[in-house]
């Protein structure tokens, strides 16, 4: 039985207008798509993102990655342990702060990223091509604003 203060049209209104619901639905679908294409490599989309975040000149600390990946420390620590057990990354003490650990790719981690990158590029291009009403750049900027990033990420140079 419907509550008169919560009629069905309110349910329809929220279902149509709710940005949170739409973002969650889109995120789940994107995660499913990327999980599927990375499955032959034994990776999930989250593992790919974590490994790629380690591909930088200076190895990051765990705390450096929580904001970048939008993960809490406990969840990120669990994800790191899985990849570490697989030999795709390792942790080493920070030279300046022995309490902190630096996270780095292993040779096996770099190798799997090299395999995954063409798959990511092809899948990403296909998804961007499916966007009709807004450009991919507008979508990225809007999502960055909603996630609290101070400014949209710059387009990376091709050098």
TrEMBL record:
Domain of life: Bacteria
Region of interest (Disordered), residue spans: 140-159
Pfam families, sorted: MarR
UniProt GO MF annotations: DNA-binding transcription factor activity
GO BP terms, alphabetized: response to stress
InterPro entries membership: HTH_MarR-typ, MarR/SlyA-like, WH-like_DNA-bd_sf, WH_DNA-bd_sf
Domain (HTH marR-type) ranges: 16-148
Annotated protein name in UniProt: Transcriptional regulator, MarR family
Species annotation: Vannielia litorea
